[in-house]
């Protein structure tokens, strides 16, 4: 059975991108640019710019104007991120299939470990609509405000409409992330064994975990642009905590099973080697050293040192580097938001 067969299940995005032959990043950029352009045209047509000028504010100083632009950018970014998650998941599954960690068993496992139900994905997307009222309440903390005529203008209407589109795609993305993470967790639990000499074959588990953390990084990075506004402190605290918890779970779920298998294999191998060092006959049966005839005492001693040094997580230096970069992106976003706020205040003061 070919490696491609388990992954033949088609998604709506496969159908779409076959008919729109553009890279997801370019399509996302065009969508974001189109939304920003539409926002500008609506602002001109409705007099929203005049309203800001009457208050002596530029668009980035207005909470509603700033959020409207950020949501337009997110509305283009999230569909592209979802597509890249799908492609990255397939690459990681292909890499595991090529490593032959489950001789003859990977296709059957993947048939049971699908990418989830389209209906469930839509339900998660619709549940994302609850995020907009939650954020609005944590920022305004006055529900009666939403029933006043002065509240509803282009900025707030755009925020609620486009924000609902953003949270819809965000809900689908989160559903896919955790569904695929559980797929990798099931594959890890079904591993017949792990080879301490070939940890590279296990790296797709770590790459999937890193891939799963991207949505939270994107959201926090964009949301950080509002931290210059004191009204967003509570919203940033609540949502930041939720996103960090989600990212930690999405990162660990694909790797935890492999971590447990590596730790158990190290423990068993060290027990065999220590027994061999003590001179117990047949102690190395099942060990890579078991077929080495006439091995001196230095061989099991060196092998024990190697086994003790094997990391218990399927992560290499390059994966750790990428993770550090992803974690650093929101930090740079927070610092950048504070610097921009400071510079604007000095320039306009």
Give a short synopsis of this structure.
This protein is mostly helical and 349 residues long. It has helices spanning 12-19, 24-46, 48-54, 63-99, 106-112, 118-127, 131-140, 154-189, 203-212, 214-223, 233-277, 298-309, 317-348. Helix 2 (24-46) runs antiparallel to helix 4 (63-99).
Biggest sheet overview = none
Give the SSE string.
Answer: HHHHHHHHHHHHH
Count of alpha and pi helical runs: 13
Total strands = 0
Specify Rg, calculated over alpha carbons: 26 Å
Q: How does the overall form come out from the CA principal axes? A: elongated
How many structurally independent domains? Answer: 1
Structural class: mainly alpha
DSSP strand (E) fraction?
under 5%
Distance between the termini: 69 Å
Mean pLDDT: 77
Give a written overview of the molecule.
It is a single chain. With 349 residues, the protein is mainly α. It is 71% helix and 0% strand. The protein has helices spanning 12-19, 24-46, 48-54, 63-99, 106-112, 118-127, 131-140, 154-189, 203-212, 214-223, 233-277, 298-309, 317-348. It is elongated, with a radius of gyration of 26 Å. The chain starts with 11 loop residues before the first helix and ends with a helix.
Architecture blueprint of SSEs:
Blueprint: H1 12-19, H2 24-46, H3 48-54, H4 63-99, H5 106-112, H6 118-127, H7 131-140, H8 154-189, H9 203-212, H10 214-223, H11 233-277, H12 298-309, H13 317-348
